[in-house]
Amino acid sequence: MASQITFIGAGNMARAIFGGLIESGYPADAITATARHQQTLDTLAARYGINVTTDNAGAVADADVVILAVKPQLMRNVCQSLGEALAIGRPLIISVAAGITVDTLADWLDDPTLPIVRCMPNTPSLVGTGASGLFAGQQVSAEQRELAESLMRAVGIVEWVEEETLLSAVTAIAGSAPAYFFYMIEALEKAGVARGLSPDSSRRLAIQTALGAARMADQSEYDPETLKQQVMSPKGTTERAIHCFEQAGLERIVDDATRACFDRAEELARELQQR
User: Fold this and answer.
1) DSSP code of residue 196
2) What is the distance between the alpha carbons of residues 214 and 223, in angstroms, rounded to a whole number?
């Protein structure tokens, strides 16, 4: 029998996860989602065939897994409203809210013994190619850890971290990183237009090249540095372009950007915990 899963919140990330689960064969009738607006829920029920309700406490009563998918700013109030209901069934809690630690969640839920997993997914989860970082609190069993991983694998790859602070690194390298690649695609599109291509052609070429390069990096036996060298003929066009990137300090720029992202993730975590 499939585990009963309740999503508190039905935004884009929740939809990506339960949509991926259903696409991979998970029974829709084992999934419940909650939201504040009935119209939203009716749309989800019609599209996915899941159970829907506006009653958060009632939705978690019989759940094996509760996925907290509300905005971080709303999380405290939501947790405090769920404490008594969660104490009955003691389900696995998975939070996809950035910046809120396991200890803070346990405090807001008023139960330090609840099993809690924090998850940092990214937006490509919406198309089944996400990358999620997971951290398990001390109360999470090996079986629950395996369950959390299997759920998130429905929308992409999963990487566990053994220290909670490393989720800020996951944010910098995966959570926020889709925007970095969109930025590169945008820059290539503009460069193509500047050299005479139409905007549509330039965009299609840039997107397909990014897709192909990522797929090669994923499937090849070689590391990215070797793949780069294989495209670089001596004194050729690619070599000259790469030298321009090197002279501009691209590696330093990427390091600076990810450090800034990491630092801001840490700042946000501190701010959220002080509320």
Assistant:
1) T
2) 12
pLDDT in tens, 143-193: 999 999 999 999 999 999 999 999 999 999 999 999 999 999 999 999 999
DSSP structural state of residue 211: H
| CA separation for the pair 64, 142 (Å, rounded) | 15
Spell out the domains of the chain, with CATH numbers in brackets.
5-164 (3.40.50.720), 178-265 (1.10.3730.10)
> DSSP of 214-237, one letter per residue?
HHHHHH-SS-HHHHHHHH--TTSH
Annotated binding site for NADPH: 56
Annotated binding residues for NADP(+), written as ranges, equal 8-13, 69-72
Known binding-site positions: 8-13, 56, 69-72
- DSSP at 175: I
Query: What is the total residue count of the chain?
Result: 275
Taking the model in full, what pTM does it have?
0.89
Q: Where are the alpha helices (DSSP H) in the chain?
A: 12-23, 38-48, 56-60, 72-89, 102-108, 142-152, 166-170, 178-194, 199-219, 224-231, 237-247, 250-273
